[in-house]
C-alpha cells in the first residue's frame, strides 16, 4: 500500500538491540507473549506497542499489553478461535484467555486526514485508508513516547519518532508537526497534558505553544469525547499536576469557563479559590492512590466547590440559607448551566447538589 500523502517521506527507524535497552521478556504478560509467538509462527509480524513499551522501558508495570500486526482482522479471527472483532471504524481483535484476561490485537494502520477528526461524516471517506505499514502506524500515534514498537522476534525496540530519546530526556512531544496534528484531532492536547501530569515529564516547547495557540479547536470535538477525556484526567491519579498544567495553558478555563476571572493563572500570587482548587485536586489524588477513586458526581462537586464559594460565599452563608429548597434549586440551575457544554449525565449533575445520607 502506498503511504498517505503527508507520510510520503518517512525516516528510517532507530533500531535498538536488546543489549542497549532495559525491556526484558520476563516482564511481558505471558498471554501477550503467546499471542505474539503465534502470530510469528503463522508468518505475520508481531509487535508490542504503545503504553506497554513506554512503561516497560521506564521500569513500570503496564496496565495493558497491546499488540500490533500486519494480519488483518479476519485473519486474526481465524488464527485465534478464542477471539472476537470489536469496533466499527477501527476494528480490534480481542483474544480471550482463562480467568477473563483479554489481549487486544490491532492491524497496523495509517490514518487519513478524515480519520483523525473522529467525525461521523468522515467514516465513508476514511475506510480505504485503514491499514498501513509500521512507519505509518507510528506516525499516526499521538505522542512520541507512545509510538515505540517492541519486536518479539529479536527483542529490539523500533523507534521512528524519537520516542526513546524523549523517554530518556523526560519529554512529552506530539508526533509530527504539532499545530497540524492538533488541528486534525484537538483531543491530542488533552492527552499530552495528561501524560505530562502522570509522568512528571516536561512538555516540549513547540508542543506547549501549539496547545496554547489551538485551544479553541477543542470546541469542535464532540462534547461526549471531551467529557470522557476530562474524566480520565480527573481520575488519572495525577489530578493535581494536571490541574496546574491545564490552568497554566488555559485549557482549564475552556473546560470550566465559570472559573475565568476566579482563579489565577500565575502561581506566584494564587487566589484563595486557586489554592482551594489545587488542594481539592490533591485530595482526589490521595483517594485514588488509596484505592478509593471518587465517582463522577463527587469529582465534579470537588472541582466546582471553589467556584461555588466565590459565587455564593458559602463560608458566610447562614446554615438555614444553605438548607433551603430555593438555594438548592438555584445552585442546581447554576451548575447545570456550567456543565451543559460537557454533556455531563443528568444523574451526575443532580447528585452534585443532593444532600448526603442522614447522619
Task: Tell me what you see in this structure.
This protein has 359 residues and is an alpha+beta fold. Helices cover 45% and strands 10% of the residues. The chain has 17 helices and ten strands. The chain has an eight-stranded mixed beta sheet with strand order 1-8-7-2-3-6-5-4. The protein has a two-stranded parallel sheet with strand order 9-10. Helix 11 runs antiparallel to helix 13, helix 13 packs antiparallel against helix 14 and helix 14 packs across helix 17. It is globular.
Average pLDDT value?
86
State Rg.
23 Å
Strand order, sheet with most strands:
1-8-7-2-3-6-5-4
Instruction: Kindly report how far apart the N and C termini lie.
Output: 66 Å
| CATH superfamily membership of the largest domain | Beta Polymerase, domain 2
**In CATH terms, what is the architecture of the largest domain?**
2-Layer Sandwich
Uncertain regions: pLDDT < 50 for 5+ in a row?
A: 1-7, 112-129
What would the CATH topology of the largest domain be? Beta Polymerase, domain 2
CATH class of the largest domain equals: Alpha Beta
Number of helices: 17
- Strand percentage: 5-15%
Q: Which structural class best describes the helix and strand composition? A: alpha+beta
Order of helices and strands: EHEHEHEEEHHEEHEHHEHHHHHHHHH
Number of strands: 10
| Main beta sheet | 8 strands, mixed
- Give helix % range: 40-55%
Shape: globular
Amino acid at each position: 500500500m502506498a503511504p498517505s500523502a503527508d507520510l510520503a517521506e518517512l525516516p528510517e527507524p532507530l533500531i535498538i538491540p536488546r543489549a542497549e535497552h532495559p525491556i526484558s521478556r520476563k516482564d511481558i504478560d505471558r498471554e501477550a507473549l503467546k499471542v505474539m509467538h503465534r502470530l510469528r509462527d503463522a508468518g505475520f509480524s508481531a509487535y508490542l506497542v504503545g503504553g506497554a513499551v513506554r512503561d516497560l522501558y521506564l521500569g513500570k508495570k503496564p496496565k495493558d499489553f497491546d499488540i500490533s500486526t500486519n494480519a488483518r482482522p479476519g485473519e486474526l479471527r481465524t488464527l485465534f478461535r478464542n477471539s472476537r472483532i470489536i469496533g466499527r471504524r477501527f476494528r480490534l481483535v480481542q483474544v480471550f484467555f482463562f480467568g477473563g484476561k483479554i489481549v487486544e490485537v490491532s492491524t497496523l494502520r495509517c490514518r487519513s486526514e478524515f480519520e483523525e477528526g473522529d467525525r461521523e461524516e468522515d467514516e465513508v471517506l476514511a475506510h480505504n485508508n485503514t491499514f498501513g505499514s509500521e512507519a505509518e502506524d507510528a506516525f499516526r500515534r499521538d505522542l512520541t513516547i507512545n509510538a515505540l514498537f517492541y519486536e518479539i522476534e529479536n527483542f529490539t525496540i523500533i523507534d521512528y519518532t524519537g520516542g526513546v530519546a524523549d523517554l530518556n530526556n523526560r519529554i512529552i512531544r506530539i508526533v509530527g508537526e504539532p499545530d497540524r496534528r492538533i488541528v486534525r484531532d484537538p483531543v491530542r492536547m488533552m492527552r499530552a497534558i495528561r501524560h505530562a501530569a502522570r509522568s512528571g515529564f516536561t512538555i516540549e516547547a513547540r508542543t506547549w505553544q501549539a496547545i496554547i495557540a489551538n485551544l479553541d479547536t477543542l470546541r469542535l470535538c464532540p462534547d461526549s469525547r471531551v467529557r470522557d477525556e476530562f474524566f480520565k484526567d480527573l481520575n488519572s491519579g495525577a489530578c493535581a499536576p494536571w490541574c496546574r498544567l491545564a490552568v497554566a495553558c488555559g485549557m482549564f478555563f475552556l473546560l470550566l469557563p465559570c472559573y475565568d476571572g476566579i482563579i489565577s493563572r500565575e502561581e506566584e500570587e494564587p487566589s484563595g479559590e486557586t489554592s482551594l482548587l489545587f488542594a481539592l485536586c490533591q485530595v482526589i489524588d490521595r483517594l485514588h492512590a488509596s484505592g478509593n477513586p471518587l465517582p463522577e458526581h463527587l469529582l465534579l462537586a470537588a472541582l466546582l466547590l471553589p467556584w461555588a464559594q466565590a459565587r455564593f460565599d458559602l463560608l458566610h452563608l447562614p446554615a438555614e440559607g444553605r438548607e433551603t429548597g430555593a438555594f438548592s434549586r438555584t445552585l442546581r440551575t447554576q451548575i447545570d448551566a456550567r456543565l451543559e457544554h460537557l454533556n455531563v449525565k443528568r444523574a451526575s449533575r443532580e447528585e452534585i447538589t443532593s444532600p448526603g445520607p442522614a447522619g
